[in-house]
Amino acid sequence: MRKIAALFCLIGLLSTNAFCQNKTHTFNLSKTDFLLDGKPFQIISGEMHPARIPVEYWRHRIQMAKAMGCNTIAAYVFWNYHESEPGKFDFQTENRNIAQFIHIAQEEGMWLILRPGPYVCAEWDFGGIPSYLLKIPDIKVRCMDPRYIESMDRYIKELANQVKDLQVTKGGPILMVQVENEYGSYGNDSRYTRWIQEMWKFNGIEVPFYTADGATSFMLEAGSIPDAAIGLDPGRSEEDFGQATKANPNVPSFCSELYPGWLTHWGEKWQRPDVTGLLKDVKWLMDHKKSFNFYVIHGGTNFGYWAGANAFSPTQYQPDVTSYDYDAPVNEMGQPTPKYFALRNLLATYQTVGQKASSIPAAMPVIEIPDFKPNVSASVWDNLPAANFVPQPKPMEMFGQKAGFILYRTTLIGHKSGKLLITQLHDYATIFVDGKYVGKIDRSKGENSIELPQPANGNPQLDILVEGMGRINFAEYLIDRKGITERVSLDGMTLMNWQVYNLPFDESYLGHLKFPATEAVRPGNIFKGEFELKTLGDTYLDLSLWEKGVVWVNGHNLGRYWSIGPQKQMYCPAPWLKIGKNELVIFDLHQLKAAVVKGVKSME
């Protein structure tokens, strides 16, 4: 490990970075303070998530946090991003090398707070919990269910092996490790949270632990651990910190999530909180020497199918947009915003005499791609895999599918028209009878039924193409399987004998697509085109003329788009582009003909 650390030092700022000397430190908890090498230390942290940032940009984003005035990086680790199938871990490919991210933070002179879950929330699919657990019909999560514990134990052991030599006690930058996340908002099993803490210790984690909860007495009582620091989400007043002291007067507390921005759901306006209140909160925290963490300083992007969703009642469903810009100080492209400069200027007033702020790193190049239109199309109906035969519909997880789309097909016998009711549709369906489009059903609008017209054929074929959007990531309705999760009825008659087609729209599925030279006649089409580049840079692909679907560039899934907005532009980072020809693929649930796509320099 020392050889690896030395190598990174040579790559980084070796002459000026004390971290690169493998010096060990102590980090402890007093009743009121965090103690670094025995002295009170104020954590000024900026949070970012490696899974939401291309690996090529990790260093730049960390440098941006440092230049704003932070001394620490907080980082979530998403369990389901590293273990998509039981026992198959990936801590190497693309942006999954957590140890590398931590090393880069150290090279840039930053400490690190590790937030490994196993549950994280984070507006991330299923709060970071792997979807393979949902194949177990009666699984219970975030508790001592032995099936959940067995999987979680495997994850903790594997992640601990990746990070244990990067603790401050070993010469690394990791100061603290969080236990679970906002558990007091969900459950009250202290045996479960203590078990997680003990498992980290058993696997070599020796730095202090902390919990994070809302600054209310019942959340702190249910979520806190006796010997762990208390994080407040948020903590920004004497009253908030007083609640933490009441919960446990023997450990320090800090603001573990201070919100410069906020999340946005599909169909909403962009959340853009005013900076005035934020500056007031930061000033209070600095004046009172309270440690705090900006959640988030840079949000990044929910590439692929990773965006989560909220639901605060059994009938509510609020899927998150693809962009995780979050109105953060550092925007989705990594550029400083007016909020960034306001915070940087404020934090600069607290620098000691002789202390100099880091310079802001240069912005990444940005380009515009000229308008172009995909010129080849295929139909999902011509690209169906082998069917699964089931008496009644099952969700995609029961077929081993993690995300994407799924098709349910049956023949109508008995009732041929009337009210089609889908009980527990998750989440968006397009309905067809004998290949003719009837309409859509949208869970996010509280819809669950549609009227089927009288068919021309005596034994009509019913097709229900379902998009599984983000799994719920917060509060009590976490068990959120995708597809048709209960049953389908027509005028009260339960429909039986289904063919189910898995359509994950992953790398394997896309690689086997057939593009016949035929014109689209019904919705559910895949469009492909090429564009040429002479220079590279970040860009946004404007899809404002498209309806609803997913887009890929050179095989990279940029995420979901939807005409209801507010997001109409999809972030495409420069490392995913290439000089010369680039390939674009779009799957749209409604579009019959290709529309124009163009590259723009910013998001509306």
Cα end-to-end separation = 46 Å
Structural class: alpha+beta
Largest sheet: 8 strands, parallel, barrel
Helix count from the secondary structure assignment: 11
The CATH architecture name of the largest domain reads Alpha-Beta Barrel
CATH superfamily of the largest domain: Glycosidases
Q: Hey, roughly how much beta strand do the residues contain?
A: 25-35%
The CATH topology of the largest domain: TIM Barrel
Any low-confidence stretches, pLDDT <50, length ≥5?
1-21
The domain tally reads 3
Q: What is the number of strand segments?
A: 33
Q: What is the general shape?
A: globular
Rg (C-alpha, Å): 25 Å
Write down the CATH class of the largest domain: Alpha Beta
Mean pLDDT: 95
Q: Numbering strands along the chain, what is their spatial order in the largest sheet?
A: 4-5-8-9-10-11-12-13
Helical residue percent band? 10-25%
Task: Briefly summarize what is shown.
The protein has 604 residues and is an alpha+beta fold.
Would you give an account of this structure?
The protein is an alpha+beta fold. It folds into three domains: 338 residues, TIM Barrel; 120 residues, Galactose-binding domain-like (Jelly Rolls), CATH 2.60.120; 88 residues, Galactose-binding domain-like (Jelly Rolls), CATH 2.60.120.260. Helix content is 19%, strand content 27%. Strands 4-5-8-9-10-11-12-13 form an eight-stranded parallel β-barrel, surrounded by five helices. Strands 17-26-18-23-20-21 form a six-stranded antiparallel β-sheet, with no helix packed on it. Strands 16-27-32-29-30 form a five-stranded antiparallel β-sheet, with no helix packed on it. The chain is globular, with a radius of gyration of 25 Å. It starts with a helix and ends with a strand. The N terminus is likely disordered.
